[in-house]
């Protein structure tokens, strides 16, 4: 047995197994954990994790059996080992976060993918938050960035008050100023229109005045 090779961290530790009576049948000699995705040696019928044996062989020119057989021929997990694996009850890897689930050897992986007790990193405070509390946390976390619905600028939730006082009001003032500018432009346009109309009226007035003068003159001539 190649004693130099030991996988430091088993993927599945025995403290997660509630009812393990046949440890030797389900233990990987390379990582010393419960086998994950087990494969056997066709000679000795003993099993290892498929990742562990792959790593073990990657350093060897000729693949050896980690249990000491001179040649290694990979086989599927032998029946007795599978039967013991099927009886195991395994706790969820997120037990420390509050998950009480107890799972069979074949189900624990799919449970853990969806487990509500796994951690997620908050983009605001960068703390790990349990998945089931994540949404609520993000709705309240003072360090999460939010967008002001008034002025569209971004700031951390904790700065909301100071934003409204300092930045947003300034932005709103700026917006109001530009609205005032717009109004002024409109106003001067209207003024120009009014000037034109007045000019027209004045021209009309001159016309009518001349007309009146002419008719008066004609009438005077006729009367005279
Ligand atoms: Zn292993
Ligand atoms: Zn062997
Ligand atoms: Zn769980
Ligand atoms: Zn947070
Ligand atoms: Zn704002």
Q: What is the helix/strand order?
A: HEEHEHEEHEEHEEH
State the secondary-structure class: alpha+beta
Give the domain tally: 3
Report the top-level CATH class of the largest domain: Alpha Beta
CA distance, first residue to last residue: 147 Å
Fraction in helix: 40-55%
Order of neighbouring strands in the sheet with most strands: 2-1-3
**CATH topology label of the largest domain:** Herpes Virus-1
Categorize the overall geometry.
rod-shaped
The average pLDDT value, as a whole number, equals 90
Give start-end ranges of low-pLDDT stretches.
Answer: 1-5
Ligands in the model, by name, code or SMILES, are: zinc ion
Radius of gyration: 43 Å
Count of alpha and pi helical runs? 6
CATH architectural grouping of the largest domain: 2-Layer Sandwich
Count every beta strand, where a strand is a DSSP E run of 2 or more residues: 9
CATH-defined superfamily of the largest domain: Zinc/RING finger domain, C3HC4 (zinc finger)
Which band does the percent of strand residues land in? 5-15%
Instruction: State the major sheet.
Output: 3 strands, antiparallel
